[in-house]
Amino acid sequence: MADEIVELNNGTDNLVIVGIQRRGVQLAAQIVSTIIEREKADVPQGALDITLYRDDLQTVGPRPVVGQTQIPVDIDGKNVVIVDDVLYTGRTIRAALDELADFGRPKRIALAVLIDRGGRELPIQPDIVGKKVSAEPWQRVDVLVDELDERKGAIIAERGDGT
Amino acid sequence: MTLSLGKDLLGLEPLSGEQIQLILDTAEPFKEISERAIKKVPTLRGATIVNLFFEASTRTRVSFEFAEKRLSADTVNVAASGSSVSKGETLVDTARNLEAMRIDMVVIRHGASGAAQFLAERIESNVINAGDGTHEHPTQGLLDMLTLRDHFGRLDGIKVCIVGDVLHSRVARSNIWGLTKMGAQVGVCGPRSLLPNAIEELPVQVFTRVEEAIEWADALNILRLQLERMTAGYIPSLREYNRVFGVSRERLERAPRDLLILHPGPMNRGVEIDSDVADGPFSVILNQVTNGVAVRMAVLYLLSGGKPELAESAKGGGGR
Amino acid sequence: MTGSILLRGGRVIDPTQSLDEVADVLVVDGKIEAVGARVSGDAKNRDGLETIDCSGLVVSPGFIDVHCHLREPGREEVETIATGARAAVAGGFTAVCAMPNTDPVTDNQAAVGFIIRQASLANGARVYPIGAISVGQKGESLAEFGEMIAAGAVAVSDDGKPVASAHLMRTALEYARTFGIPVADHCEEPTLAHGGAMNEGIVSTRLGLKGIPAEAEEIMAIRDILLARRTNGHVHLCHMSTRGSVELIRWGKDRNINVTAEVCPHHISLTEDAVEGYDTNAKMNPPLRTADDVAALQEAVRDGTIDLIATDHAPHHYDEKEREFAHAPNGIIGLETALAVNVTWLVASEIISLPVLIERMSCAPARVFKLPGGSLRRGTAADVTVFDPSAKWLVEPSKFRSKGRNTPYSGQTLQGRTRYTLVGGRVAHREEA
Fold first, then answer.
1. What pLDDT band is residue C16 in, cutting at 50, 70 and 90?
2. Which of residues 199-218 of C touch B (CB under 8 A)?
3. A142 Cβ partners below 8 Å, 6+ apart?
4. CB A1 within 8 A of CB A28
5. Of B142-146, B223-227, B249-253, which gets the smallest average pLDDT?
6. Per DSSP, what are the bridge partners of residue C414?
7. In this predicted model, what pLDDT tens digit does every residue of A15-60 receive, in sequence order?
8. Which of C205, C211, C325 sits opposite B114 (nearest CB)?
């Protein structure tokens, strides 16, 4: 995926990788370190927590925990790539786009996701996809990362108490 | 699973350590929003919040207003006349009128202890206590704790001494409850005529001289001394108060360590605190103000609970 | 001419005759005709005899409340003499003394006469006016004790307020000697108590309410006791609330000083913890104190240091109490709950016996204030209370005869209920089981 990002951008100039909390951030870090290794160029990395921009805050129940947002550079005129683990309805990305708009006006924004499980509810499509899978609405698709889950992987499982 | 704060924030005494921790942790990401170019998130868009201030207060009201507006809520300021003994609307009628206008949250500051609870028991909107009589000022206590935590990295085990008119201070009470629940050690220092008679029954250390307090503490929270205390016979004069209890650079220099200096404001420079201390290197008074907005945003966010019943019906979609 | 009444088979308790046995009481022409086991035999010949079965009940001299506020003239929307007198008989009281902090203040013979007249129309308990100590209760100059007494007043008090001036208290005690009446003082040192809303202590500190220290009462109590010693006058200390006050009263009585004292049911049952949540129905003056004070007062009722129990019945309008704690007026009602509170906290817990309770609620008030009643001796006016000392009932303020609803006992189940109250031989109150 790192290679595809660089190719899409025609290099690493003006590139900014922004990971979505939570696991998008770890994936973004892996992508950035891969780019640094292969291209010998540093790329700024940011983290974005979209909790406060969710469109379902009125109905979601107990207040969700708000994670850290940190955009270390001015994004005006830059090529921002949003990185997330799973793309499903597209609402998270919608929220991310709204939030980025409050930080500045990038030249372009692209979307890279590890897994696209279909089931879109908004007209949002990824530019780069790691793997497409099929999942029913009653199933959940989770990505695991070393930093948070102590292992790597992806699983498809039945929804438990409802997510 | 997040802890619930309930419908209202009336004080720190009824909260558990976990709940206070939740508010402080939630305030962290909100600090960042005030550093952005566009200091706004859409979280409380469409919510109506009334700032009901029966006591004049610029800084607290403005701080709440910024917190509300940065969450995209609609705010209305109501400056109501003093006690309900005067020919104004009673608190009960004010409450009912507000409810009839379908507001979501009320931030109330009132001169009578218990006024926030009185309001909260009579309306369904969330009620946030911005200071009721001499009872509590929970958001002040929270922002003081956040400021201390920023500096020390923790609250557990640090020694904080509250200096001044504890008898009449809601800020002191909120600090005492909040800090002790988070494991800090709390001291109070002031003339005995300005300490509650029952102070020994509270979990605090009592210092009669400010030099002893300075020797003991890691941080001082210096309370504003009000002119009326002098005329009501609690202390002889502001001059003597400053000479005996004022926090000055000379006194601080004799301390065994560098003390952090807090003050809820507004300051009486030269009375309870000297200017070179207020503006000195260990003063975090301005940090308190910055943290105040973040803490208030966190409180508003946490109280503005969602409605889980709607979540159930929305369950078909509502995903990522 | 009232008909005859036979109160049959009750436990008749009359401390003035050292009587405590199952017996009958015959009432004829408004007076006690006979008390004893053989009474029923005579009664059969009387015309128009009403027989009331009192088995399982206690028959005692009617309760007398020497301290209540009937609000008329001036605050008739909150209580009138008529509603207060009916609330009194519902609580078992055959007589009450009405405090003079009305509007206008009852400080002259015409005002006293007005109260007497209103009471006579009320069809409830007897109402004896208490006149003010000072004109307008302003604490400056003495009111006309003689004129007020001639019109029917039985004592003087500035209750509602303390007598702040020791000089005025002294002259009042001396002047009252002329008429042999007690001077009843509301003990509160004004500068210590100023602005206070509850007892000063850890609870007031936590709630952020200004406290009234116990010393505010004790300082005035000892002042009054010392002045009673100097003047040989009779001082009656109203609504005592602290252990310290009890100790001072004992000191005075040990020295044969003419001091008497009363306590209210709330001060022998509730503590300052009742204020939690800023409940204005727990706000009164003097305030509720600590458990230690309650224990001391209960013991004082037992050993007689406190002579009698009075209610300090103080109705307030719902709107007045429905506000911020510090701004709510002081006072709770008490006429209709006094017996039950006393039985629940003093008798059921075996601190005192029923005869002692009756002594404190009926005999002592009559003796201390020199009022008729307090006894079932043959020939006395038939002021009789018949009550069930075991009956448990739910306190529902909406059912009170008083216009007031401000009670801290609302929703509680208490023990002890009045069944019949006779005033002058007439059944003024009947409570069906």
1. very high
2. 200-202, 204-211, 213
3. A86, A154, A155, A157
4. no
5. B223-227
6. C393
7. 999 999 988 999 999 999 988 888 888 899 999 999 989 888 777 6
8. C325
What's the pLDDT at B129? 98
Question: Cis peptide leading into B224, omega within 30 of 0?
Answer: no
- Model pLDDT for residues B42-64, shown as the tens digit of each residue: 999 989 999 999 888 889 999 99
C198, C203, C205, C207 alpha-carbon torsion, rounded to 10°: -80
Please give the Cα distance from B91 to B109 (Å, whole number). 12
3-state SS, B262-299, equals: ECCCCCCECCCECHHHHCCCCECHHHHHHHHHHHHHHH
CA distance C433 to C419: 8
Query: Taking CB atoms and an 8 Å limit, are B173 and C200 in contact across chains?
Result: no
Instruction: Say if the Cβ atoms of C206 and B117 lie within 8 Å.
Output: no
Q: Is C391 helix (H, G, I), strand (E, B) or coil?
A: strand
Q: How far apart are CA B197 and CA B121, in angstroms?
A: 30
Structure tokens at A150: 């102590």
Distance CA C261, CA C369 (A): 11
ipTM score for this prediction: 0.84
φ, ψ of residue B133 in degrees (nearest 5) = 55, -130
Strand ranges, E, within C211-283: 211-212, 235-237, 259-263
Q: 3-class SS at C92?
A: coil
pLDDT band, very low/low/confident/very high, at B38 (cuts 50, 70, 90): confident
Letter for the amino acid at B293?
V
Asked whether the beta carbons of residue C327 and residue B198 sit closer than 8 angstroms, the reply is no
Tell me the two tokens of residue B202.
């509270």
Q: Please name the amino acid found at residue C54.
A: C
Convert the pLDDT of each residue in B227-253 to its tens digit. 776 678 888 888 999 999 999 999 999
